[in-house]
Amino acid sequence: MARLNIRSAFAPSEERAQVVRFLWAGLINTAFGYSVFALLIFAGMHPQLALLLQFILGVIWNFCIHARFVFGVQGYRRFPLYAMSYVVLYFVNALLLRGLMQVGLDPYLAQAVALGPVVILSYLMISRALGRGQAMDRRG
């Protein structure tokens, strides 16, 4: 008869720990990215241009956080795939921002609302780009 091990049922798995690290990294990355976006808007920049600049700066900043802290990847071998993921995320975010602004939200609130779906999509794409669930060389 199989014995139920309560302790192991509630112990954090590596995947759950990875999701928690991703969420923490996401808070840091979001604070950085949204701050850049808001500062650029405050300085008078068009929202779409502010979003583009925020994404360019963010992809470099976020790679360092995600690769090392969340997924344990060393080096920059996976950076091109990561950057391509961010290109897709940028266009999804830009379309959401535009659509939300067209229904009457100001750019600050529109971008805040867009963050939810973008965060979910980003975990799915970034975890693939950095090798989640694959036997991979952790050095790069």
From TrEMBL:
Chief place where the protein resides: membrane
Annotated transmembrane regions: 21-43, 49-67, 79-96, 108-126
Pfam families named in the record: GtrA_DPMS_TM
Residue span(s) of domain GtrA/DPMS transmembrane: 21-127
This protein's record includes keyword Membrane: yes
Record's keyword annotation contains Ion transport: no
An individual GO BP term: polysaccharide biosynthetic process
Membrane topology according to the record: Multi-pass membrane protein
Localization (cell): Membrane
Keyword terms, alphabetized: Membrane, Transmembrane, Transmembrane helix
GO CC term, one of those recorded: membrane
Protein name: Flippase GtrA (Transmembrane translocase of bactoprenol-linked glucose)
Species annotation: Ruegeria faecimaris
Taxonomic lineage: Bacteria, Pseudomonadati, Pseudomonadota, Alphaproteobacteria, Rhodobacterales
